[in-house]
Amino acid sequence: MSKSVTKYYCQECGYESLKWLGKCPGCEKWNTMVEELVQPLSISDRGAASFSSLPQEPKLLSQIELSEIERLKSNLNEFDRVLGGGIVPGMLILIGGDPGIGKSTLLLQVSSLLGSNVNRNKAKKVLYVTGEESAEQIKLRADRLNIKTDSLYILPECNMSYILTQVENLMPQMVVIDSIQTVYMPEVSSSPGSVSQIRECTTALMYLAKGKSIPIFVVGHVTKEGSIAGPKVLEHIVDTVLYFEGDEQYTYRILRTIKNRFGSTNEIGVFEMLETGLTEVNSPSAAFLSQKPQGVSGSVVTAAIEGTRPILVEIQALVTPTNFGLPRRESFGIDYNRMSILLAILEKKIGLHLGQYDVFVNVAGGMKVAEPAVDLSVACSVASSLLDRVIPSSIIIFGEVGLSGEIRSVSLVEKRIEEALKLGFKQCILPVSNMERLKKKTAINLMGVGTLREALEAAQIWKGSA
Q: 71-282 has which CATH code?
């Protein structure tokens, strides 16, 4: 029998080395290399041998026949839509998020809905494996959420070998592992949460999901930067990666799709955290704009696209004289570097002197927006606050701003306009190139702009002088 080999793994990215290194060559982080003992035969090799079937012969793409996938419906429309229409049998899903954000609550609610006769669906057996809490703690949460079902099984266990045995004996229709950092393989001589344990346990779950056609949800911890803890191989193995986002100061939670082999990516679902659990928000735009102030400078509404869904959000800006020599720049919900570029464009192309002002930009409601289509609304809100001129509440603004002050076209303009019409907006400031390509007539008054100066004039902010 071959001897065990000692290797060093990076706890951040999974980089492998035969000797200890102070700085990881993969992620360039310091003091992340941890010594681990590698067995001659890994669990993934045994799982692959049991999962593999007879050798397959290559087929022409035109000869491959597709069969319709029957998805499991959780009856949480926001949750099902994020997954692409429901849960696919044999699907391995990784869900991450900050501590206390509601990951366990969401999965417990989904498990209870599958385990009960909802909307005439046949009850499904669900196994909820918890490595962080006891069965009594899960019961207390279930009572708080008013969960009553006879098909939900709770297993407080961390030994992966025993978990796999119980799954084969019970044969549930869905399995939840909470969390992957707490389970371990006895054959791997490293502590739970290490790179080797996470890789081997996730691989074993993948073979189980594919071999038995059982969808498995895996909860993953996140680092202080917000990414899922452990090596990136964890995200490569699974079929779908979901991030549960939200600010603890707000009641809204956003479930975002980062990777999905059975649906579109960058899709989001919006939930509201209440005392009785998570409830889906059917109209996120109306929810985010419900508390928008009227007649206040520095406030503007924009239309952002999350996946395939248009969402209207409020951009707020506050520009005040600085009390120190170095002005402050703060952004919440949008990229800080992008905001700095927009401020430079306002100074260079419009002539707004912001060097002696503190600038604060916020996306109301705790929403995070990354697409460049919000550039124009951010620039307009900053100019509105600086000049103390109110943007009419009936106007919605979107468009990308180039470095020379030109307004560039954005995608899915029709969906943005339709969402604005639903909420009663009368005017829309958009790139002129998008307006020229619109094929359908709309009841909203469209104002196409080609430069940032034209956009400020259309929004009734700029009147020729600061």
A: 3.40.50.300
Check pLDDT > 90 for residue 137: yes
Instruction: Answer whether 451's CB lies under 8 Å from 407's CB.
Output: yes
- Closest by CA position to 177, among listed 192, 187, 189: 192
Measured CA to CA, the distance from residue 28 to residue 87 in angstroms comes to 37
Task: For 267-388, list the strands marked E by DSSP.
Answer: 268-274, 277-280, 299-306, 309-321, 329-332, 357-363
Question: What is the per-residue pLDDT for 208?
Answer: 93
- Per-residue pLDDT, 121: 55
Rounded-to-integer distance, Cα 464 and Cα 466, Å: 7
The domains spanning 71-282 and 287-458 adopt the same CATH topology: no
For range 272-287, the mean pLDDT:
86
Q: In this predicted structure, what is the pLDDT of residue 57? A: 83
- Tokens representing 164 are 């796999």
- pLDDT class for 120, splitting at 50, 70, 90? very low
Task: Label residue 135 left, alpha or beta by phi (over 0 means left) and psi (-120 to 50 means alpha).
Answer: alpha
**What does DSSP assign to residue 350?**
I
Domain boundaries, the chain: 1-41, 71-282, 287-458
Q: How far, in Å, CA of 339 to CA of 374, rounded?
A: 10
- pLDDT value, residue 26: 80
CA distance 370 to 363: 11
Beta bridge partners of 126: 152, 174
Using an 8 Å Cβ cutoff, are 217 and 177 in contact? Answer: yes
CA dist., res. 298 & res. 360, Å (int): 10
CA pair distance 223, 97, nearest whole angstrom: 9
User: Which among 70, 138, 113, 71 has a CA at the least distance from the CA of 280?
Assistant: 113
Q: CATH for 287-458, among 3.30.230.10, 3.30.870.10, 3.60.20.10, 3.30.1360.140?
A: 3.30.230.10
For the stretch 159-211, pLDDT in tens is 999 999 999 999 999 999 998 989 999 888 778 887 788 888 999 999 999 98
Going from the C-alpha of 249 to that of each of 101, 177, 184, 364, the distances in angstroms are 11, 28, 35, 12
**What are 307-319's pLDDT values in tens digits?**
778 899 999 999 9
* Whole-angstrom distance, CA of residue 172 vs CA of residue 190: 30
The separation between CA 136 and the C-alpha centre of its own chain, rounded to angstroms, equals 30
The Cα-based distances of 257 to 152, 162, 354 in angstroms read: 26, 31, 37
Q: How far apart are CA 327 and CA 294, in angstroms?
A: 28
**Which is higher by pLDDT, 225 or 199?**
199
